[in-house]
Structure prediction request, 646 residues.
Amino acid sequence: MAVTIKQVASAAGVSVSTVSRAFTAPDQVQPQTLQRVREAAAALGYSPNPAARSLRGGRTGSLGLIIPDIANPFFPPIFKAMQARARRLGYTVLAADTDEREYDELETIAAVSKQVDGLILWASTLPEERLRELGAEMPTVLVNRHVEGMAELRISLAQGIAQAAEHLKAYGHTRCVFVNAEHGEHGRGKSIREVFEAHDLSLTELGPYDPRFETGLHAATLVAAGEATAVLAHNDLVALGVLHQFAKLGVGVPDRVSVIGIDDTLLAATSTPSLTTIRISADEVATAAADLLIDTIAGRGEGRVAGIGSRLIPRASTGPAPG
Amino acid sequence: MAVTIKQVASAAGVSVSTVSRAFTAPDQVQPQTLQRVREAAAALGYSPNPAARSLRGGRTGSLGLIIPDIANPFFPPIFKAMQARARRLGYTVLAADTDEREYDELETIAAVSKQVDGLILWASTLPEERLRELGAEMPTVLVNRHVEGMAELRISLAQGIAQAAEHLKAYGHTRCVFVNAEHGEHGRGKSIREVFEAHDLSLTELGPYDPRFETGLHAATLVAAGEATAVLAHNDLVALGVLHQFAKLGVGVPDRVSVIGIDDTLLAATSTPSLTTIRISADEVATAAADLLIDTIAGRGEGRVAGIGSRLIPRASTGPAPG
DNA sequence: GTGAAAGCGCTAACAT
DNA sequence: ATGTTAGCGCTTTCAC
Prediction:
């Protein structure tokens, strides 16, 4: 099939170990020998077989990224950025989707973990105990989950939410609605309630529903019937549903109601009106996660907690409160 | 590190080959032995090491999917569907993004190809000669590229476009614009021109530009200044730009102009107004591509050409021509 | 600085 | 039906 280290060795007139070193520890081989090996390798189109490498060294050169749903437009940019970062560090990224089901998550992790040097688990739904076991078995970085002693990337919406609250307040809003589309206690709701309260903004919570477009449609109908002048949605997709339904009901945005999303996905930038939203930088997140995992693989990341912030991106869906 | 076939063998009181067979050819081992092996494996938490497997057998159990841009919302559902299909057939999917640059594409392919049993190349920008070389080296399926003798998946917009033309015609439109956002001769333009002509619809072409939101913004301004009553955009993203700019200019959709996109991404379903678009089924595409590649790997797919159709999804962005 | 050789975990002859 | 054994391509002691 492909060209092996042996062929390169004989072509360059050296032993296989020299060829191996030429690739893994170039400083341990004499410059001119190195040169010869490199030429031979290039001429033959050689590149090391990762299977053999990993079998021998226990190292695969890949990072595993386990996410709930790649179809959520929040993730592709993250995957992309992580790929770019990892490549520069000599790694490849293997992404897998769990379809938001715990059973699939376990199975997916089992399948992927054999082929990677470490795992990034995004918003895992696994019980803490399983996470702990996993962490004992292989380098693991948790995103938005906390387990004592494990490396963690914490994405904080706090700044973005505070900016949203200031933004609404400056526009004269006082009555706001939060459309919750997340079950469980790890959600965005708590932080939002606290911050809005601190800013003296009344906050009514709808839900929890599911994070779908239709949730927004439904919530908008409820909001239109009430007194609130601003809506903060669980994410951009839900916010888009809100926008859509308001348009249908003839409720002006932002004249009658202002709308804010979360994530700053492609959806937010391209909607009509464009959506004010809270951005979590894909580049920052991906870079931090990849670096943290690589450090953990190297044994110097264990238990470290990295933080990523957020900020408000004001667009056309927010404006002065009516009246 | 992990538990090996050897440990399972001694735990079950059999030889390693029996354990191996228990996993790869269960029918060749006696039921009760099989049972014992399985229990031992389960008890120890054994699962085969893919690196060793692939080193030995030359088989990795992975399919490589090379796409131009995973951030294009068209691709995630395809990746997802392919993952689901591949998993049932005993394969894993490894996705990689080329960032639409030829240099990256070559490098990406080189990196990925060592770790997979075959490649699906989506809308490759590589010259035909390179594709041919690649096909000689490893099982390859081309999507939307044609090279004599290589397996190919052809996605045809013809039906969708014909339905769009009928749809517009039935609504009384006569003057249409196509916003071209693709360079090169493999584009969507040719088919569209032919079909619209056959339906007696005048078609003005704008561009070629780039497939971006801003392209739609720009094109909408041009269209608003003209007489056309219907716009067909290169894809949903561009169509969304058109929608956005029309809203800004106060051009009613669909009252003054009707708008049609292509791809039926999430963007189309969630826009305001919701976007009439031409759907290419992610499930069909992914299934066909995966099956074709697996057949090619098995030596019975070479040179086969599979076809996938498309259809119009009428939504709220199209309606009767004005006047 | 370089070479020889062992062995990573597994599969596929081959032998029994 | 099951066991023995030779490597797959590579890295890594250990010699020299």
